[in-house]
Amino acid sequence: MRIGLAGVGRIGAFHARTLLGLDFVDELVITDADPAAAERVAGELGVRRVPGVEDLLARPVDALVIASATPSHADLLRQGIAAGVPTFCEKPVAGTLEETLELARLEAASDVPVHIGFQRRFDAGYRRIRDAIAAGDLGFVHTIRANTHDQTPPHAGYIPTSGGIFRDCNVHDFDAIRFVTGREVTTAYAGGSNKGEPFFTEAGDVDSGAALLTLDDGTSCLVSSTRYNGSGHDVRMEAMGSAATLTAGLDDSLAMRSAEAGVAFPPGPAHATFMDRFQPAYVAELTAFAGVARGDQPSPCTVRDALQAFRAAEACDRSRHEGRMVALSEVADL
């Protein structure tokens, strides 16, 4: 397959290296809004670069991967759909709820497959929780705890366009909760605080957040996020049921230490970034996208799915600003 990649920043360059290691990729062609960045990555990886996405689509390519800056996602996704090219797009689909709704409608009216990049759907631990819940191995699930804790914050310039901590970090947790439970969020109550760099406050964001979600079967979900987890990158999910509890992310790399005497677990080392933590999941995700592009399988994560995670994030952000519980029925849907 000939794959076009739009965006070669941190995640884009990571995807480029991942794609080049996959058997089904015969050629990778890249572009970036920063020509110097595209030239540098093309030279490092020995791939072809072109000036813009229009040039990628004109080659033509068998599939398009969008890993550019968040504000460009929506326009590039529209271009991929208009060209009839199967498209993978990193989250978020768009920066606003209104634009996400528009793209979900566009997807629904088209037969072009779109796969949105929520890589936790391809993590072995999260998939095992999903299978266990579906099989009834946990009994009835009463509580889920999910967290996304970054070791260090991103650069100051990233935050104003990130959408805020719930849309940027916890949106992965919201999608994963839907994925493992098969349920929908009905209410959200959220808050946050700033104890770190002032650029979070200046952008109207927080550097640490917490949310309580209720699902449509009554399950309580406790969700947290921070940009300052000095022990390492920590992403986990605990599904607690009447018969058993199962946890994803509980292994030797767990970024915490026990306060109990004589306990050596976990020995480490901890992960430093999400790319370390989810490298196998990214490989599985892009491999699945190839199947989507070939028509072998439906999209495992549609724009419609991304919309539902975004609606939960939107509810949390409204709750933080308004100091009240927000029903998901208050947030626009298709």
UniProtKB/TrEMBL annotation:
A UniProt-annotated Pfam family: GFO_IDH_MocA
InterPro entries (alphabetical): Gfo/Idh/MocA-like_OxRdtase_N, GFO_IDH_MocA-like_dom, NAD(P)-bd_dom_sf
The keyword Chaperone appears for this protein: no
Superkingdom per UniProt: Bacteria
Gfo/Idh/MocA-like oxidoreductase N-terminal domain boundaries: 1-118
Coiled coil: none
Keyword terms, alphabetized: NAD, Oxidoreductase
Keyword Zinc tagged: no
SUPFAM superfamilies: Glyceraldehyde-3-phosphate dehydrogenase-like, C-terminal domain, NAD(P)-binding Rossmann-fold domains
Residue ranges of domain GFO/IDH/MocA-like oxidoreductase in the record: 126-246
Gene Ontology molecular functions: nucleotide binding; oxidoreductase activity
Family listed: Belongs to the Gfo/Idh/MocA family.
PANTHER family found in the cross-reference section: BINDING ROSSMANN FOLD OXIDOREDUCTASE, PUTATIVE (AFU_ORTHOLOGUE AFUA_2G10240)-RELATED, NAD(P)-BINDING ROSSMANN-FOLD SUPERFAMILY PROTEIN-RELATED
Descriptive protein name: Myo-inositol 2-dehydrogenase/D-chiro-inositol 1-dehydrogenase
